[in-house]
Amino acid sequence: MADLPSNEWMELLEALQRRLAALAADGMRWLNVAPDPAMAAAVEQDSLPSQGAPPDTVATPPAHTPAAKRPRPGEPAQLGIAMAEGARPHPASIATIDSLHDHYRDCLNCKLGAGRTNLVFGTGNDHPRLMFIGEGPGAEEDAQGLPFVGRAGALLTDLIKAMGLTRADVYITNVVKCRPPENRTPQPDEIASCRPILQRQIELLDPALIVTLGNAPLKVLKPSAAGITRERGVQFMYADWPVLPTFHPAYLLRNPAAIATCWADFRHAMELAYRQT
Ligand code: SF4
After folding, report:
1. 243 C-beta neighbours (distance < 10 Å), count
2. 56 Cα: distance to centroid of ligand 1 (angstroms)
3. Residue 65 is part of which domain span?
4. Is residue 113 part of a domain?
5. Of the candidates 274, 221, 270, which has an alpha carbon nearest to the alpha carbon of residue 245?
6. Residue 114: CATH number of its domain
7. What single DSSP character describes residue 62?
């Protein structure tokens, strides 16, 4: 396997790390990276991989051929996971990601539903090689109905671009689809209520690799996990799907020194998701 990102990418990320560290040293706690013209310009440079295509050093990704043993759309889930669905029918018979979204558009299966502006189902490629799972929507996500569109989302988008991909190439969602009040961590009953949606998303999308962002999705897919600090970068299997945990972008905004470590995980994810099988 070729070395995926070029030195230019590493220099780009290291420059970003140095910049964030300098801002943090100056007392800045939050940074909106979305309108960062330097970063945007760097990503758009002709010498860098164009959006929508992997870096030159990456072999052309093969068409994603799901493993035959994985659940097919329309088939019942094989995992025996406890569901907390309330009165709603089991989603296993729902055959497409769009119909799954429609099925839950008005969901009130947990208390988070009453406080939302928009249900944030997920967005991206419906046959992705990479699926990112975060914790839950924040204020900006709740307002727009899209995942990872706030400050942390801008950083995730930049990291995806640095992989030579766009958000349209991957799929992005969260453990819970409605915003927890005051952006608190989702509670166990809320995660359990929303889990059938995430479960069916994974089955229908059938990604080559799942990347969990932060503690919440790691604990959902691997309840025995010690925590993201110890488990990040260590691949495990969730049923038939390989999973690579890494830090949540919001953590990177607060701890810019961790960006290089997270970028190493993203490089590893690229290798795993696009390797020839
Ligand atoms: S968080 Fe999930 S289970 Fe709870 S209301 Fe929203 S979509 Fe339904």
Report:
1. 24
2. 41
3. 7-274
4. yes
5. 221
6. 3.40.470.10
7. P
Is residue 160 within 6 Å of ligand 1 at its C-beta? no
Between the CA of 41 and the centroid of ligand 1 the distance, in Å, is 38
Radius of gyration of the chain (CA): 18
Judged on CB neighbours under 10 Å (0-12, 13-18, 19+), 257 is exposed
Q: Among 90, 85, 63, which Cα is nearest to 203's?
A: 90
Q: Is 194 in the pocket of ligand 1 (CB under 6 A)?
A: yes
175 lines ligand 1 (CB under 6 A): no
Dihedral angle, C-alpha 45, 1, 259, 17, nearest 10 °: -40
Residue 216 near ligand 1, beta carbon < 6 Å:
no
Number of domains comprising the chain: 1
Residue 237: inside a domain = yes
With a 6 Å cutoff on the Cβ, whether 55 touches ligand 1 is no
Quick one: tokens of 184? 């608190």
Which residue type occupies 232? R
In a domain, 1, yes or no: no
Whether residue 240 lies inside any domain: the answer is: yes
| Cβ neighbours, 10 Å, residue 89 | 10
Lowest mean pLDDT among 54-68, 145-159, 232-246: 54-68
User: β-strand 236-238 against 241-246: which pairing, if any?
Assistant: antiparallel
With a cut of 80, say whether residue 86 has pLDDT above it. Answer: no
In whole angstroms, what is the distance from residue 213 CA to residue 263 CA? 12
DSSP string, 108-128: -SSGGGGG-SS----EE-SS-
Residues 172-210: tens digit of each pLDDT: 999 999 999 999 999 999 999 999 999 999 999 999 999
Three-state DSSP class for residue 179: coil
